[in-house]
Write the structure tokens for this entry.
Amino acid sequence: MVIENIAKKLLGTAILAVTMGCAGSSAPAVASRAPAAAPAPVEVAVHQTVVAAAANKAAHPSVSQSWMSFRDERSAYLETLAAPLLECANAKPKKRSPDCQRRLDTFEIPYALTALYRVTKDPRFGEAAEKSIDRKRVAKNDRFDHYTAAWFLAFARERELATRNTDMRAPADAVAARLESVLSDLDDFQFAQKALFGSDENVAFTLSNVWGWADHRADAAMRSRLVSYTTSRMLGADMDSWCPMPIDGEPENFEFMPPCLTRATTVLEVMPEQLSNKWISEFVAAQDKLEPVRSPRLTEHGVLNFTRSHGLWSLYEATGKGLYRDMYVAHMKAQMAELGRMHKRGETIDPWYSAFGVRALVRSYAA
């Protein structure tokens, strides 16, 4: 009951803002900035995607109208999300905004542009991705914080998948080893704190990216260790008593990830057979009540729609149930509509929004 007691203590204290702020910086401000020069959301895609229709490894349920509508709009969504990323990557260093530079430093922009290139083969994205890589920063990867390290692993994996370029492999191996050590060294209090809150040091997000790299590298030894870690810590009985938490459906403060959904989907990434686990099966079944955040009062809550979308697609892949795909569509559409309203109000779109949006959007393309 150690984790449960720690969880109750944490929930009983206003500790939700402790781990705020991405990549060691202050949390992104509410989106209310000066009018942007960024282009309006694209109505018709400039570059048609060349990837076949979205698919997943599970059996396909019957196609729904919401999914068909989403597919019709997806290219325009892609262009809307790409615009701030391209603007940032192509800007001269002295002309880059603080938001732009921050997301370059965390490798969110290199990741997102590379992912876009992978699913479209549009040279705009490939060329901008190359421009966005700070190789001097890569060389100093031992200084990465947890959030930056997790995104770097996602970027390195995408780079190999999209270009077959393995120049990031050695630093990514080193980063993965360090993150695995960090996860293993967490005491019960630290683990509970980082698992409870959907902030930049969320333990499931970190584990997911380490696993993604280990699986990509076919590193059997690391995969075995991560399976053991997932079994002992992510599936601990103590965790079941406080998850799901209200934050998954009723966001507070600066959370931008749903901690319980992220926990469930990470477990299913590492151990797909755990779909039959009592807590996992009950939690997954309960997600049919999750609704998008409408008119989010904080930037983070807008990103939450994208991180939920990412998780909901994982549930669709794991179960083959069209319900979760439709919920994915509802969350994606809700946040894309909000981005359109932000543009009309003359607000700039933080590349941070776009990176998480792309992370969710590319899930719907064929792997």
Notes: The two ends are 41 Å apart (CA to CA).
